[in-house]
Structure formats: structure tokens, C-alpha cells
Design a protein that fits this description.
CATH class of the largest domain: Alpha Beta
Mean pLDDT: 93
Structural class: alpha/beta
Largest sheet: 7 strands, parallel
Bound molecules: adenosine-5'-diphosphate, zinc ion
CATH superfamily of the largest domain: P-loop containing nucleotide triphosphate hydrolases
Number of domains: 4
Helix content: 40-55%
Radius of gyration: 27 Å
Strand content: 5-15%
Length: about 600
């Protein structure tokens, strides 16, 4: 098939007029019969790289996917685009399975989704020899590697299965990019080294914002008011999940549900299903929530506490904005998050301690930086990004950077001279020279550090103490006091500087509002709302989430451009031939009535 034909197919099937990022490279290789490992971040459009060849090539594309829930989501989306697809899993009833097998053997399937455990079954190999296979697509391919974070022994049976069909190209897909794992995946799946295609890690539509957690309910309520669409709030414990879910529901009146491993499995499944189908729900969850969800219209991911590493942070925030629309990742942090994480280091095995410590240090640099958050994140993943991105809190509203080295020396020496057992409240009184009974009783009014901080610097003490705790120069004692740690000695000796970033006084509300006007939904526009209502009705009728019918961006285009005919409607991004035929008239009717 020639390149123009392939673009035509792309448009007819998916309603897209161009490839995104590395998609054309990946699809090009597959169409040429070359095996490939594509490392693409969440939302980059991995599924298209096998679905398009699946419809363009003769025969069936066999997709190996580890999560049955995800498989069924993809199946529904593929079918909605008119792709002939079926699955073979333990969750399907025998009748369905028999029909799937019959369709495959009759050459009537573009896509056959299977779980990895099938791969080792002799009768599955037998089945595949009964009809032409166009492509093996291996989703979440890092599962084949013990170096990956999610090793699945079943994936090891894929190689012998695929080796039995040497003429069929292999396409391995993953969003995790660690170099070690990539090399291992290539070797394990028998893909040549030159078959590696790595897309950039950047998620330009996600706006990163990181704030000190001074009132989480208020901060999250503000975020929810700015973002009427679906969102996820990650909380560190089950109790916090329940508590936040209750409060946010009460304060905002929005649908808010909890999700954590302590809930009854049925409740958990029901909450997840409700979230996937919803256009405005907020899920408050532990990190147990997320694997197996590829809801494209998640408008924000908030963290109510510090995640355990940059990797987890990036993976979790990556669940926002897969559809490419503007989205927000908000992290609320407290000094105690770092204090607790550093305390837990003592319980970590000796051999893993240094690694753990560097993960905490990396997180502390992320929250403390006055520079571009995105640049820091991308550098962490080995990229060489521009110094500023224009779409993170620090780029939009630069924080003030203060050289607090001298004040830090005063603070650290007060901690040292009072015996490294008092909390910040007491230390502040000593430094500010308060006439306080407890200070006098301990004789702390006679220390050289008594009263050495003037009132002009008093407001800096709290953010400074936070920064020192984040970087580990101050560590908590067992009884809630503060002690010296990390590089405290170097700071005291003047060998290390302490720069702190002070966020602008007014949170970036004004700018943020201006930014979002371009991308966000015109909720309240009668036509847009009517289009959404129709989408909701059609989705309910078909038993699929609304985004399977059309994405928000497609409805926005309809409302803005008001197409008057099927052919005009068919020009919009996201409307392929099948959807045009199935839904076109209904949407045109709504447009005509407004
Ligand atoms: P991933 O699996 O990599 O996270 P998906 O395959 O779910 O990403 O695709 C993410 C979103 O991007 C989907 O909603 C899809 O419709 C959209 N998309 C994919 N390719 C294109 C393209 N070429 N043009 C426009 N939108 C696209
Ligand atoms: Zn930035």
C-alpha cells in the first residue's frame, strides 16, 4: 500500500488527517514487514500503530494484552471505528469464544485480542496456523523483561509462539523507557536492535503545578472549580482517601468516589466503571487505581502527598489528558512527606538504601526548584529539553528565588545548640527572641542564637524549614523534634548554599484562566451541551463510555464549525467513515436545531 493510500485509510478509519509524532515511522516499518519496539509515552497513540496496519494488511493482527479490562476498552473503541475485532479470554463466555474462533478462521477479523497465557497453549498455535496472521502486536511489552517493573512469566512464551511464524512482523509497545529494559525486550522478543523507535517523553498538554499543601481541601476544591471534567486525586492512605472523598463531595457537590484496595472488590469495580463512563466524576484513590484505565478525557491528576519517585509521579500524572486536551497535574507537598520518607530509609535493606535516598532527593529537587518543572522531569529521563516550557507553574508565574544561606545557618545552629530535640515552633521563638516561659526555663534565652533573626526575616523561617526538610538537611527525631542531617554541616561551614523558591503571592489563577480559554470545553454553550447530551444518550444505548462515540475535541469542533452536511462533518478530526454513518445524521440534526 502506498503512503497516500495509507493516509486515506487513516482518515477513513479514524478520521485523522495526519500521523502524530513517531506513529508514521512505526507504521511504516510494520507495513514493510519489519519488527519494531516502539517506546511511546501514554497518550502518544500507541494503539493506532497496530490498528491501522491491521486494517491495511491482509490477515488478522494478533494483539497480546495483559489486562482483560483494558482489552475490552480497546475492543469497543476499535469496533466503534468499524474495525472487525474480537477477543479470546477467560472472561468471555464459550459461545462468544466459538464465534471469535470461527470468524478468525474465516478470515473475517482485523484484530484478535488475546491474553498472554494463551501463547503457551498448543491449541492456540494450532489455531493461528489455520488463517493468515498479519502482525503480532505485544502491548505493555516491558512485561517480558525481569528488569521492567511488571514482569509476567507468561510473556516468555510469546517468543516460541512467534518464532513458529517467522514471516509475521512483531510490534512491541510500551510506555516505560528505561534503557536496560528496552534492550532486554528486544532480545526477549527477537526484534533487531535497529527496530527500536523511542518517542520523546514530553506531554505538552499537561500543565505541571506543585504547591505547598497548606489546605488540601481548599486547594483541591479550587482545582475542581477550574476543571469541570473527570479527575483523579491520589492520596497516600486508605483513610485519607475516604476522608478526602467525603469532604470534596460535600464541598463541591460534584460526584466523587473513593477507590482503594480495602474496598469490597465489587464496590471497587463499580466505582471504576462509573468513573470510566463519567464526564465529570472525581476519583479519590490510592495508587492501586490507574493500571488498566485508559480513559482519555481525565482533565486533572492531583497528588495530596509526595509520590515515591519521579517515575511514579510521571506515570500517575501521565493518566491526565491522553486525548491531547489541556490538563493539569497538581502536586501538594508537605515537609512531613519527606520527613516520613527519610525516616523509613532506616527500615530499608542496606543494599537498596542509596537508591531509595536518591529517589527521595530527586523528588525534593522537583518540588523545590524555581526552574521549569517539565525541563527537570525530562532531564531526569535523559532528554535534553529547552530550559523553559511555558506550561508549568514556574514558567507561568516565576517564583522569587531567595538566597537563604545565612538564615539557614542561623536556623541550623539554633537546632544544634538547643540539643536537636525541639520542634520548629520552639526554634522559631528562640531565633526571634520571644519572651517565653519554656524558652527561659531551658535557658535558651542565654544562647548566642537567641533573638538573632529580625522580624523582616520571620516569614521566611517556615518555607526555609520546609526546604531544609525536603532536602534532608533537617530530619525529624522520634519525638517530633528536628535534628541535623544530610548536608547540614556543609551549610553551617558555608560550603553549601541554600536557595529557596517562594511561590508568587497570588496563585496563578488569573493566568491559568486565560490559558485554558483556548483548549477547554465551552460548557454552557447550548449547542455544545446539546451535542454532549446526544453523545451521552448514544453511549448509554450502545453500552459504551461517551468518549468511545466522540472525543470532546470533536464535539467542540462541531459546535464551533457547525457543519451542515455529512461531507462537511466527515472533515472533522475523529470522525471516520463508520462513525459518520452511524451517528452523522443525529449530530447534524442537533446542529440544525441550534
Ligand atoms: P496510548 O495507548 O499511547 O496511551 P492511545 O492509543 O490510547 O494512546 O491514543 C491516545 C489518544 O490519541 C486517543 O484518544 C486517540 O484517538 C488519539 N490519537 C491517536 N493517534 C492520533 C492521530 N494521528 N491524530 C489525532 N489523534 C490521535
Ligand atoms: Zn516549565
Amino acid at each position: 500500500m502506498t503512503a497516500p493510500d495509507l493516509l486515506q485509510k487513516l482518515h477513513d478509519t479514524f478520521g485523522f488527517s495526519a500521523f502524530r509524532g513517531v506513529q508514521d515511522q512505526v507504521v511504516g516499518r510494520i507495513m514493510a514487514g519489519k519488527s519494531t519496539l516502539a517506546v511511546m509515552p501514554t497518550g502518544a497513540g500507541k494503539s493506532l500503530t497496530y490498528q491501522l496496519p491491521a486494517v491495511a494488511l491482509p490477515g488478522t493482527c494478533v494483539v497480546i494484552s495483559p489486562l482483560i479490562a483494558l482489552m475490552h476498552d480497546q475492543l469497543r473503541s476499535a469496533e466503534a471505528n468499524g474495525i472487525r475485532a474480537a477477543s479470546l479470554t477467560s472472561a468471555d463466555d464459550p459461545d462468544y469464544r466459538e464465534r471469535a474462533i470461527a470468524s478468525f478462521r474465516a478470515g473475517e477479523l482485523d484484530l484478535l485480542y488475546v491474553a498472554p497465557e494463551r501463547a503457551s497453549q498448543g491449541h492456540f498455535r494450532e489455531l493461528l496456523s489455520r488463517a493468515p496472521v498479519s502482525l503480532f502486536a505485544i502491548d505493555e511489552a516491558h512485561c517480558v523483561s525481569e528488569w521492567g517493573h511488571d514482569f509476567r512469566p507468561d510473556y516468555r512464551a510469546l517468543r516460541p509462539l512467534m518464532d513458529a511464524f517467522p514471516q509475521v512482523p512483531r510490534l512491541a509497545l510500551t510506555a516505560t523507557a528505561d534503557a536496560h529494559t528496552r534492550a532486554d525486550v528486544l532480545a526477549q522478543l527477537g526484534i533487531p536492535d535497529d527496530g527500536l523507535i523511542v518517542a520523546g517523553f514530553d506531554r505538552p498538554n499537561i500543565r505541571y503545578a506543585i504547591r505547598h499543601r497548606d489546605n488540601p481541601v481548599r486547594q483541591l476544591t479550587t482545582l475542581m472549580a477550574e476543571q469541570p471534567g473527570p479527575g483523579i486525586v491520589y492520596a497516600p492512605t486508605r483513610r485519607k482517601v475516604e476522608e478526602l472523598a467525603d469532604k470534596l463531595a460535600l464541598v463541591t457537590g460534584r460526584p466523587v468516589l473513593p477507590y482503594h484496595a480495602g474496598l469490597d472488590p465489587q464496590v471497587r469495580a463499580a466505582n471504576q466503571a462509573a468513573f470510566v463512563a463519567s464526564e465529570d466524576m472525581v476519583m479519590v484513590a490510592t495508587v492501586a487505581f490507574g493500571m488498566g484505565i485508559d480513559k482519555p478525557d481525565v482533565r486533572f491528576v492531583a497528588h495530596a502527598g509526595v509520590p515515591k519517585s519521579i517515575e511514579s509521579y510521571y506515570q500517575e500524572t501521565g493518566r491526565a489528558g491522553r486525548d491531547g486536551d489541556p490538563s493539569v497535574a497538581l502536586l501538594l507537598w508537605g515537609a512531613e512527606d519527606f520527613a516520613r520518607a527519610r525516616m523509613r530509609l532506616d527500615e530499608v535493606e542496606e543494599s537498596r538504601r542509596a537508591g531509595e535516598r536518591s529517589r527521595i532527593d530527586a523528588m525534593s529537587r522537583l518540588v523545590e526548584t524555581a526552574g521549569c518543572r517539565r525541563a527537570l522531569l525530562l532531564r531526569h529521563f535523559g532528554e535534553d529539553p529547552p530550559a523553559t516550557c511555558g506550561n508549568c507553574d514556574n514558567c507561568l508565574d516565576s517564583p522569587a528565588v531567595v538566597d537563604a544561606t545565612t538564615l539557614a545557618q542561623k536556623l541550623l545552629s539554633a537546632v544544634y545548640r538547643t540539643g536537636q530535640s525541639y520542634g520548629l515552633g520552639h526554634i522559631e521563638k528562640v531565633l526571634l527572641g520571644h519572651d517565653d516561659e519554656r524558652v527561659r526555663q531551658r535557658g535558651h534565652d542565654r544562647l548566642t542564637v537567641f533573638g538573632i533573626v529580625g522580624s523582616d526575616e520571620a516569614t521566611l523561617l517556615k518555607p526555609l524549614a520546609r526546604a531544609l526538610q525536603a532536602r534532608g538537611s533537617l530530619v525529624p527525631t522520634e519525638h517530633g523534634g528536628l535534628a541535623l542531617g544530610g548536608d547540614a554541616k556543609e551549610v553551617l561551614k558555608g560550603e553549601a548554599a541554600v536557595m529557596i523558591a517562594l511561590p508568587p503571592k497570588r496563585e496563578s489563577g488569573r493566568k491559568a484562566r486565560r490559558d485554558r480559554s483556548g483548549g477547554f470545553n465551552p460548557v454552557g454553550d447550548p449547542l455544545f451541551d446539546a451535542l454532549r447530551t446526544l453523545r451521552r444518550d448514544l453511549a448509554a444505548e450502545a453500552g459504551v463510555p461517551p468518549y468511545v462515540i466522540f472525543h470532546d475535541s470533536t464535539l467542540r469542533d462541531m459546535a464551533a464549525l457547525r457543519p451542515a452536511s455529512l461531507s462537511e462533518l466527515g472533515q472533522l478530526v475523529g470522525i471516520g467513515a463508520r462513525k459518520l454513518e452511524a451517528y452523522g445524521e443525529a449530530f447534524l440534526n442537533v446542529i440544525r436545531q441550534h
